[in-house]
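request received
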Amino acid sequence: MNLTLKVWRQKNPRAAGGFETYEAKGVTPEMSFLEMLDVVNEELIAGGRDPIAFDSDCREGICGMCSLVINGIPHGGQPGTTTCELHLRHFHDGQTITVEPWRAKAFPVVRDLITNRSAFDRIIQAGGFVSVNTGGTPDGNAIPVPKTTADRAMDAAACIGCGACVAVCKNASAMLFVAAKVSHLNLLPQGKAEKDRRALNMVKQMDHEGFGNCTVTGSCEAVCPKEISLSFIAKMNRDYGVATLKGQ
Amino acid sequence: MKTIANIFASSLGKKYIMAVTGFGLFLFVIGHLAGNLQVFLGPEAINRYGAFLQSNPELLWPARIGLLLMLGLHIWSAAKVSLENRAARPEGYAAYEPVGSTYASRTMLVSGSIIFVFVVYHLLHYTAQVQYLNLTGRDFRVFVDLKDRHDIFKTLVVGFSNGWVSGFYILGMALLCLHLSHGASSMFQSLGWRNDVYRPMMENLARVVALLIFLGYSSIPAAILFGYGREVLR
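response:
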């Protein structure tokens, strides 16, 4: 199959970017979107031109590196799918596809389709951890965790931090990411000790990074490749509210 | 003091303010509707109700000031949040699809702004009773019933017999319906009082309540346009 790509090209964070059109010729429906870009890049390199810069790592939907807003939807709009697992069978021969980077003030474009998502790392550093003091190895079963709690914590922990929630949100809000990270640890007994501080500090860092606010449109959960529920944002709101009312 | 400053400064805090004031205004909308529907019980009921509300300024004014304060905070948080949201995405998309979101949720600022214009007009129209704004050429302030109370029934019938005014009221209520179909459920999310179990119920309930509010309020101008209460004009 043949595709026409309209790709955002930008030399560096300060340069003005713009769209350029490329033809992806002779690609197959079994290829992933990134493999198709690889084919286009090989041709560009062979022709002595700059390849399209994009992020990718594991290419099996678990690392959170790949991004790309494809025809207006982060990760291309297939439910529970990252760009690396998006196959060309979802497109039709001769289709024109617009490819853009994540757009948010907190995610500046580094080059072409690559954005700097360090803001997420700084939010994690602000509280997305459990402080473990050294000592003897605790017994594996010493802390009972109910199955339902473990399952819910796992649902939140499934977040791979790709940033699609920010990219799709009309407000460029990072609430779903932060909510998943806050909830994951706040639900578990190991994380309970730092529950209040975690919620306050991670939200504070999120605000500081310049993400937008939540208006509960639900776009984030619709594109989340790990299908994180909007209800985790309610949980974060609750945890943050309780911590605030305690005057911490 | 620091706690209050944090609430006003943080992203989640502003949403708490929006949700709490929204909840207060939502309760008022329901109470106001219950009171207004007495118009269908005839002139005696609605005029008695109006006289009762006006009879106790010590309660009336605190209620009015409370409502104004809530409205002010609701608008302030909406403005602040919207400005921050705009700043969070300086460069937009060439192609953008708002997947998974409802029309109501994306247009809260627009529906809210028009509702505000409606509220201002409504207050000038029936509360302050500014004569040249009611488009009927009549002075509502001189309408008095047989028991020497302000004749609210006649005021409503005269006021809503103008199609433009009634149309604007119905439009305002349609936008309120749109606003509440999202807001009445979203406020529980903002306050953290929602989970996967209650969420579908709350979302559906919000839509039903919003629609009932629309039908309830719109029934008054609609009924008058169709001839209800015309006999008092004779």
